[in-house]
Structures are given as structure tokens and as C-alpha cells.
Amino acid sequence: MTRRTFALSLAATTTFAAETSKERGRRLVEKVVAGLGGDAFRNMQTRTETGRASSFYRDHLTGYSIAHLYTKYLPPNAHAGILELQRQTFGKKQDDAVLYTENDAYEVTYRGAKPFAEDKIKQFREATLHDIFYILRQRLSEPGLEFEAAGIDVVENQPVEALDIFDSENRNVRVWVNSDSFLPVKQRYYRWDPTINDRREEVTRYTTYRDAGNGVMWPHTTSRERDTEKTSEMRSERVTVNDSLPDSMFELPNGIKILKP
């Protein structure tokens, strides 16, 4: 090693050592966004997922159905509620649906639209606000949002880098991303459950990434756990972005009967 090479190496080492966990965290976030598709990911307007959804209780399969998940993103900072709309349908005919608006949620059947209970809406809202993909798509410019690198680890038999995310309302989620692709592998957050007067551990695992269009990488298998027990899994056969989804898809039909919660 020449003196010049040694000096450059020493300078690089000193710079890395001087880098704070927040600076490393911000740099890691930029790599994750780039791995997910960069501007194509940040500017996607809709997403359509088609596959099979499974539900579990105490790690035993309790339900299995063809599922279609439709998501439409709303302009950041333009609304007070969740900045995306969702429609979930199950079965081949897609007759029954679950509809998530900015502030409400409904189960829609031939009988009418049944509003979700307030605790279920709050649970969905917290899950969305903690979701790494929603954070990177909709919340990056949010005041008070901070990122901190939390070191290296091994998750799902692959080397990962851990990232802690905090917001101004004391929410915290830890995300593990692959050290080579920088795609999210796993995330974890805790929420308080008043029904058991204790906190719950919510874990989501992401695998089988494929190009969903325009270079946007999206996991085709997503599994969720609560307190170490598997609760649901979505195995997508096809994921596309920027499909033309009409506004009516995310609205209650005119004249539909509103049922009691």
C-alpha cells in the first residue's frame, strides 16, 4: 500500500467512524428507496395484487381464498387521514369487499355496508402508519420523521442491516433490509391492546420480490405474525402498478344501505 492509498483509506475510515447513526440511517433509507425502484416507486399511483390469502389461528390454517387487493395513493399532505385507499375482495366473483377510506372502513356485501368498529379502524390505521412501504411512499417528507441505523444482523438466513424509524407521535418500527439488494426482509413494531391491557408484537415478513412494472420491486409473499403466532399470509401471483382504477372502486355504491356496526 502506498502512502497516498493509506492516507485515503485512513480518511475514509475516519469519515465512517464520524458518521452518526442518524446519518447512516438516512443513507440506508435512500438505498432502500433506490432498491424498490427509486422515483418509479415514489411516484406510483395505484397497485393491484392478485393471489391467494390465508388466515391462521394459533398457527393453524383457518381460511383460504382468492384475493384481489387494490390500492390507490392520495397526494401527500392533502388529507388528514391515511393517504391511501384500499379495496380488498375475496372469491372469484369479487362480490363481497372490504373498503378502507381515509378515515373509515366497511364490510360491503349484498346486505349493505357494515362499518368497522372503532378499534378495528384504529388497528388498521396503526398498521398502515407503521408499514415500511407506506412510510417510504407517503411519509418521507413528514415533519418529525427520523431514521437511525441499528447495526448488522442475520434474518431469514440472509445478511441484513437494521433500521429504526421514529415519528413525532412516538411511533417506532424496526425494519431489516437485505445488505445487498436493500429490499425489506422483515419489520416489527409494538402496539398497546386495551382488550388484554398489554402490548402486542406485530411482525411482517417479505419475500419473493419481483418487478411489478416500471422497475418497482414488490414482495409477492407477505406473512404477518402477532406475538410470534402467524395470523395471515398473502401469496400474490401477479402484482402491477399504475393501473387505471376508477374512483368508484374505492367508494360506497350510491344508495347502499348502511348497517349497524
Polypeptide structure, described:
- The protein is α+β, with helices and mostly antiparallel strands and 261 residues long.
- It has a single domain (22-250), classed as outer membrane lipoprotein receptor (LolB), chain A (Clam), CATH 2.50.20.10.
- It is 22% helix and 46% strand.
- It has five helices and 13 strands.
- It has helices at residues 3-18, 21-36, 39-42, 118-130, 132-139; strands spanning 46-57, 60-73, 84-90, 97-100, 105-109, 112-115, 146-155, 158-166, 172-178, 184-193, 198-211, 217-226, 229-241.
- Strands 6-5-4-3-2-1-13-12-11-10-9-8-7 form a 13-stranded antiparallel β-sheet.
- The relative contact order is 0.18.
Large-scale geometry: globular
- E-strand count: 13
As a percent range, the share of strand residues is over 45%
Q: Unreliable stretches, pLDDT < 50, 5 or more residues?
A: 5-13
The helix/strand series, from N terminus to C terminus, equals HHHEEEEEEHHEEEEEEE
- So, the CATH homologous superfamily? Lipoprotein localisation LolA/LolB/LppX
> What would CATH call the class?
Mainly Beta
- How many domains in all? 1
Give me some keywords for this one.
single chain; 261 residues; alpha+beta; outer membrane lipoprotein receptor (LolB), chain A; 22% helix
